[in-house]
Design brief:
Chain lengths: 343, 216
C-alpha cells in the first residue's frame, strides 16, 4: 500500500496493511533541513523544502504542511502584532479587539493575497506537487474559539464566556469565517486533510457545557464544509478531551487527534467504531525528553489499544517539539512498521 | 450581620462570581474598620481557595478560576492603601518572584498562581510574561526573594526554565533562592532534570509546594 492509501483506509475505518503513522511535525523539520525557525517563515520554497526533507528523512505516511501555528499567521493577517524570535515560535503580543467597537473593523483575510497566508498556500502546492501522489497531505486551520481568544486576549475572552456571552459569540463568528476561508483555500491548494486545531476548546480549559455553546456550533459548520468541498475534516483539541469525546465525534470530523493525556483505550471503546482516532505519544515527556526505546514502548501501547479493526493513525499527542531528537521520530515510524501489521 | 457572617458572605461572593457584591463588601469592610489582612484571610482568600479546590475536583473550569482571580485582584486594589499602612506584615511574609519565561506570552496560568500565592499570604512580585533570563537574575538580586516561580506553556519555551536555573548557578545565586517550575508541558521529571526545587501541576498545588519549600 502507498502511504496515502494507508491513511485513507484508516479514515474509512478499514484495516490498511499496516497502521499508518503521521507525526505532527512541521517546524521541527528545520533541524533536519539545517535552518533556523525564522528562515522558513517568509519563504514558501524554503518551507516546502524543509517539510519534504522531513518526509524523506523519516518516511512517515502523512505530511503536515504548516510551520508556526496557524493561529499566529491568521491573527497577524487580521492585524495583531507578532513578536518574533530568531529560532523559536513567534507569538502574538497584543490583542486586536480591545473593546466592542473594534469588532466591526476586523476584516476577514483573503488567503490568496493577504499577509503571509499566500506563503502557506504556495508551500502547500509545492509539497503536493512533489509528494502528493505518495503521502497524505495534512494542513491546519485554527479553531474559532481559539482564534477568538487570540484576537480578544484569551484571559478576557474566558471571563466573557461567563459575563458577556453575546460578545463572545460575535467574536467567534468573525473568527470562524476567517478559519473557514483558510481551510477552503488550503483544500484548493491540494491539502486532503484539514485539521482544525482548537486548544482553547479543551476540557483542560473550558467546561463541556461551554464547549457545546461556544465551540460545537461553529466547529461543526467548518468541519462539514470541509467535507462538502471534498476534503477530510479532522479535529485537534489539546489537553484533556475525555468529557467531550462523544460530542467531538458528532461534529462532522472524520478524524480526532487526541492528546497524550486522553486514555486511548477508553476513546477506542467509546467512539472508535464511528470515527478514526489519531494519537497520542507524549510530545514533551517521551518525544522530547525520552529515549528511542521509550518511544517504541509508548507507540506499541497506542497500537495495541487502538488499532483493532482499523480506524487508527499513530501520531504524537500534539506538535513535536523543535528540539526533539530525530532518533525519537524515527523510532515512532519504526514502531508503526514493526508492531502495526494487520494480518 | 456580625463580623464572622460578614466575612463569610464576602467569601461566598467570590464563589458566586458576583463581582459587584465582592467589591461592595470589600469597601464596606474598610468602612467598618475591619483588619484588611483578616478581610483577605477569612474573606477573599477563603473563597479563592475553595475555588481552587472545586477546580481540582473538576467542578469548575479555567474561566471560573480566571474570573474569580480577577474579582479578587480588583478587591485587593481597594484594600491596598490600607495594607500599605500596615506594612510590617508584608515584610515578614515569604517573597515569591514569578514570571513566564522568555519567548512565551502565555500568562494565564502564571497569573492564577500569583493570585493564589497572594491569597495565601505570600508577598508576590510579578515580572509579567516573556521575561528574559537576564531580567530574572537582575530581579533576584534586587528583591532577594525566597522563591522564584517560572512558567512555560510551550515545549519550545520550557527549555528557558533550564537556562534560568543554570544562570542562577553561574551568578552564584542558586543557593539563596528556591526555584519552582510549572506549565502544561512541564513535569516532575523535567523539574528534577533541570535542577529546580519543585514542580506544581496547578495553582493550588503551587501554593502547597511553595509553603513546603520555604519552610525547609
Amino acid at each position: 500500500m502507498k502511504p496515502y492509501e494507508r491513511v485513507s483506509a484508516a479514515i474509512n475505518l478499514e484495516e490498511p496493511d499496516k497502521v499508518p503513522v503521521a507525526p505532527q511535525i512541521t517546524y521541527t523539520t528545520a533541524r533536519v533541513f539545517g535552518i533556523k525557525f525564522s528562515e522558513a517563515m517568509r519563504n514558501a520554497n524554503t518551507l516546502a523544502k524543509a517539510l519534504i526533507a522531513g518526509y524523506t528523512a523519516f518516511g512517515y505516511d502523512g505530511v503536515y504542511v504548516g510551520w508556526e501555528s496557524s493561529f499566529n499567521i491568521i491573527a497577524e493577517t487580521m492585524g495583531c502584532k507578532l513578536k518574533e524570535y530568531d529560532d523559536s515560535l513567534p507569538s502574538v503580543s497584543e490583542p486586536l479587539i480591545k473593546d466592542e467597537s473594534d469588532l466591526s473593523r476586523v476584516k476577514i483575510p483573503n488567503p490568496q493575497t493577504d499577509g503571509r497566508l499566500p506563503i502557506h498556500i504556495d508551500a502547500l502546492k509545492m509539497v503536493n506537487e512533489r509528494i502528493g501522489r505518495e503521502a497524505a497531505i495534512f494542513s491546519y486551520t485554527p479553531g474559532p474559539l481559539t482564534l477568538a481568544g487570540i484576537l480578544r486576549g484569551t484571559e478576557k475572552l474566558l471571563m466573557e464566556l461567563l459575563t458577556n456571552k453575546k460578545f463572545v459569540h460575535e467574536i467567534v463568528k468573525v473568527a470562524a469565517s476567517a478559519c473557514m476561508q483558510f481551510a477552503l483555500a488550503k483544500l484548493d491548494a491540494g491539502a486532503e486533510i484539514i485539521v482544525v486545531g482548537d486548544p482553547t476548546s479543551s476540557s483542560s480549559v473550558i467546561s463541556p457545557r461551554m464547549f457545546d455553546e461556544f465551540s460545537y456550533p461553529y466547529l461543526s459548520v467548518i468541519l462539514s464544509s470541509i467535507r462538502k468541498h471534498g476534503g477530510t475534516p479532522s479535529l485537534h483539541i489539546c489537553g484533556n478531551t475525555t468529557p467531550i469525546l462523544k460530542r467531538m465525534s458528532e461534529t462532522g470530523a472524520e478524524i480526532l487527534e487526541l492528546d497524550s493525556v486522553v486514555d486511548l483505550a477508553t476513546a477506542k471503546r467509546t467512539i472508535g467504531r464511528t470515527i478514526c482516532l489519531q494519537g497520542n505519544i507524549d510530545p514533551a515527556r517521551t518525544l522530547m525528553m525520552g529515549a528511542p526505546k521509550d518511544v517504541l514502548v509508548e507507540a506499541r501501547k497506542c497500537i495495541e489499544v487502538a488499532s483493532e479493526g482499523g480506524g487508527f493513525i499513530l501520531s504524537s499527542g500534539c506538535e513535536i517539539p523543535l528540539d526533539a531528537p530525530h532518533e525519537n521520530v524515527k523510532s515512532m515510524v519504526e514502531a508503526a512498521r514493526r508492531y502495526g501489521g494487520y494480518s | 450581620m456580625n463580623r464572622d457572617e460578614f466575612l463569610e458572605e464576602l467569601s461566598r461572593s467570590i464563589l458566586e462570581l458576583d463581582a459587584r457584591k465582592t467589591l461592595a463588601y470589600t469597601r464596606k469592610a474598610l468602612d467598618l474598620g475591619l483588619d484588611p489582612f483578616e478581610v483577605i484571610d477569612r474573606g477573599l482568600s477563603k473563597g479563592m481557595k475553595e475555588m481552587g479546590e472545586r477546580f481540582t475536583r473538576g467542578d469548575i473550569y479555567i474561566p471560573h478560576l480566571v474570573l474569580a482571580a480577577d474579582i479578587m485582584n480588583e478587591s485587593l486594589k481597594i484594600l491596598k492603601p490600607k495594607l500599605l499602612q500596615m506594612k510590617e506584615r508584608e515584610e515578614t511574609a515569604a517573597k515569591v518572584l514569578i514570571g513566564t519565561v522568555q519567548g512565551d506570552i502565555h500568562d494565564l496560568g502564571k497569573n492564577l498562581v500569583a493570585t493564589m500565592l497572594t491569597a495565601s499570604g505570600f508577598n508576590v512580585v510579578d515580572l509579567g510574561r516573556d521575561v528574559p533570563t537576564s531580567t530574572v537574575i537582575e530581579k533576584v538580586k534586587e528583591h532577594k526573594p525566597d522563591v522564584v516561580g517560572l512558567s512555560a506553556l510551550m515545549t519550545t519555551t520550557m527549555l528557558e526554565q533550564r537556562k534560568v536555573v543554570d544562570s542562577l548557578k553561574d551568578t552564584g545565586l542558586r543557593n539563596s533562592v528556591k526555584v519552582l517550575v510549572g506549565g502544561a508541558p512541564v513535569s516532575f521529571e523535567w523539574a528534577k532534570e533541570i535542577g529546580s526545587d519543585g514542580y506544581a501541576e496547578n495553582a493550588l498545588e503551587a501554593v502547597k509546594i511553595a509553603k513546603v519549600i520555604v519552610s525547609k
